[in-house]
Amino acid sequence: MEQIGFESVRTNDIPLAEQVAAQISELIVEKRLTSEDKLPNEFELASMLNVGRGTIREAVKLLVARNVLIIRRGKGTYIAHHPGEISDPLGFAYFPDQLQLGFDLLEVRLNLEPWIARVAAERATDEEIAVMNQNCRTVEQDILSGKNHLPNDTEFHISIANCMHNLVAPKLIPIITYSVGLFGSLNGNTLLSETIVGHRAIADAISAHDPDQAEKSMRTHIEQNLDELKAIRQELLEST
Amino acid sequence: MEQIGFESVRTNDIPLAEQVAAQISELIVEKRLTSEDKLPNEFELASMLNVGRGTIREAVKLLVARNVLIIRRGKGTYIAHHPGEISDPLGFAYFPDQLQLGFDLLEVRLNLEPWIARVAAERATDEEIAVMNQNCRTVEQDILSGKNHLPNDTEFHISIANCMHNLVAPKLIPIITYSVGLFGSLNGNTLLSETIVGHRAIADAISAHDPDQAEKSMRTHIEQNLDELKAIRQELLEST
């Protein structure tokens, strides 16, 4: 297929380094450079794009800041693992009302994740089920050994979305689970045993290719999170 | 409420400019600086954070690249309109199979947007309905006058999500409608009249606070997009 969906805009309003960053991005897309591929060096890029090395260096910095490129000291510049994907891409950290954000994220999750679990149960391969169950066990071990389980909790939800065979759904999980860690310090971990039981019910239903049960278990799990957040709001109201 | 959900990590593995960028971000969150507020100048920041001005300058560049800050020539550095929110945050432009991406986006939209339309019909205020209807008319005018209607098409879908009173849903719309413009050059605009009729049906149902009809109209609209994408895939298969 031809290169589509990518058009660099060149006007005098846009700083030169931005224009060159867009051209380097096009180059990555055109040459189908992917994770771990090496970018041509500064000299080559400067001659390919007909700009100075200083501009190339500025453009590379922009693309590093956007997680398109990573610099390996002494080795060169490489394509990032998931080029262009950044953490907190919607700027949730800058939202003034983090409690309301938590409620609104859970409202979206209640629509999206039970459906994801349902489709995952329909489409999951044995290999994907094995990865999901491994992630489920890792979260359990984290909780039982008193470690912070939240990074692996998100990984568990991503591995469910991976069972859907949809390119977009797994990318949405880190966004909509942003709130998971927000109130950890407040809730005194009362959710931890519910998390173990809830995750296990979801994993079992997907493993058994039972869409109805997978959807229902995921809904129950997220509703427990919602109840917990309501309790936290109550605590906050009473403490002020 | 106390500052939550934001913890800067300081280790020697992280470049100094990155650490300072995180500190400036914290400052923005703590001081509740929002869109259009001015950032303290380089001297002030350097003295507040106890680093050199060169480091401040590097950190500011990182935050400009991430759309947290914007520089107004001769005026200073300001907080961006939607700080931290960048276009194409999931790096869709770097996905090798753009056609599959289009299908997978539509699968997600078919789950998410009929629900958004339903809740919008339940919660919309008169003012929000007026904005949505204005956006609907703007898209119609764009189409009838032969202009590219896609930017305003996305605005229309965002204004529906705004009727939900959920902080997250409107932010997801630009992500999941990424594909809208991808195949515009291929489909010869056969969808344009369906777009006018489809949008109008959705806007009318939300204006009438009819959740069932709003959900149904949105589903029909996205299914038409899906049919169109299937026709495009067929064309591409036949042309190769």
Summary of the model, kept short:
Two copies of one chain form a homodimer. The first copy, chain A, has 240 residues and is mainly alpha-helical. Chain A is built from nine helices and two strands.
- SSE string of chain A: HHHEEHHHHHH
**pLDDT under 50 segments of chain A (min length 5)?**
1-11
CATH architecture of the largest domain in chain A: Up-down Bundle
CATH class wording of the largest domain in chain A? Mainly Alpha
CATH superfamily of the largest domain in chain A: GntR ligand-binding domain-like
Shape of chain A: globular
Number of DSSP-assigned strands of chain A: 2
- Beta content of chain A comes to under 5%
Quaternary organisation: homodimer
Q: Which strand order do you get reading across the main beta sheet of chain A?
A: 1-2
Number of domains of chain A: 2
Per CATH, what is the topology of the largest domain in chain A? Four Helix Bundle (Hemerythrin (Met), subunit A)
| Share in helix of chain A | 55-70%
Can you describe what's shown?
2 copies of one chain form a homodimer. The first copy, chain A, is mostly helical and 240 residues long. Chain A folds into 2 domains: 16-79, Orthogonal Bundle (Arc Repressor Mutant, subunit A); 92-239, GntR ligand-binding domain-like (Four Helix Bundle (Hemerythrin (Met), subunit A), Up-down Bundle). Chain A is built from 9 helices and 2 strands; from the N terminus they run H-H-H-E-E-H-H-H-H-H-H. The first copy, chain A, has a two-stranded antiparallel sheet. The longest helix of chain A is centred in the last third of the chain and has 28 residues, at 211-238. The radius of gyration of chain A is 22 Å and the shape is globular. Chains A and B meet through helix 1, helix 3, helix 4 and helix 7 of A and helix 1, helix 3, helix 4 and helix 7 of B.
